[in-house]
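Need a sequence for this fold. Nothing fancy.
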């Protein structure tokens, strides 16, 4: 279970001050896959980082009673001057996992070949997304945090990623954020909309999608 108690987060000052989370209360009880919709810049990625513990709220509390992943495809926790192999090794040690098994999985899954031993700063955005997705899915978490599956590669690789997530969902749950309802609607049963710092909960993903599509001009990719 993951609980958010009056979680607030803002960035910038003066005219640039922007509230991303405005006292959000939420409970993710681990009984369903949750999809959170929001337009570009609404704070979806920030919300996932707060849930993961990668950022601290300005006020409020995030309580985790589950093994929670870092956001899938988020490269902020990866050192740009280290290779994919070295980054993966570091993460495996941090989680106390079998280092060689995690490296082997990430190398094979990412399909980067010799680039796996080159610094991430030489990678394209798609290559970095492949590595971070592979590293995330290499571990067994109770909850996987998924930030848009749109930039991980070509159609075939995206299908591979979705299949890997489907396999993990046999024994775990996901919290997915997206500005497009297409993929999220197929994978999640409970929905929410993040708008103006508030998280609006809906009992079904279908209802969240209907409200979102009626009120936000977003075209599915």
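Here you go.
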């Amino acid at each position: 279970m993951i609980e958010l108690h009056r979680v607030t987060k803002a960035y910038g000052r003066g005219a640039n001050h922007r509230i991303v989370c405005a006292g959000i209360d939420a409970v993710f009880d681990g009984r369903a896959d949750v999809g959170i919709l929001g337009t570009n810049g609404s704070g979806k990625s920030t919300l996932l980082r707060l849930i993961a513990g990668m950022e601290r709220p300005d006020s409020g509390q995030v309580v985790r009673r589950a093994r929670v992943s870092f956001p899938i495809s988020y490269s902020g926790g990866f050192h740009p001057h280290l290779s994919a192999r070295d980054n993966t090794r570091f993460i495996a040690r941090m989680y106390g996992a079998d280092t060689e098994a995690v490296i082997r999985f990430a190398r094979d899954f990412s399909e980067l070949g010799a680039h796996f031993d080159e610094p991430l700063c030489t990678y394209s955005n798609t290559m970095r997304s492949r590595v971070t997705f592979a590293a995330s899915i290499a571990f067994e978490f109770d909850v996987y945090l998924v930030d848009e599956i749109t930039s991980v590669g070509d159609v075939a690789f995206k299908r591979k990623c979705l299949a890997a997530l489907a396999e993990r969902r046999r024994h775990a749950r996901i919290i997915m954020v997206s500005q497009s309802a297409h993929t999220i609607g197929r994978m999640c049963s409970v929905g929410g909309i993040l708008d103006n710092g508030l998280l609006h909960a809906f009992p079904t993903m279908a209802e969240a999608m209907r409200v979102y599509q009626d009120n936000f001009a977003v075209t599915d990719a």
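For context: Strands lie at 2-11, 18-28, 34-37, 59-64, 143-147, 173-178, 190-195, 198-202.
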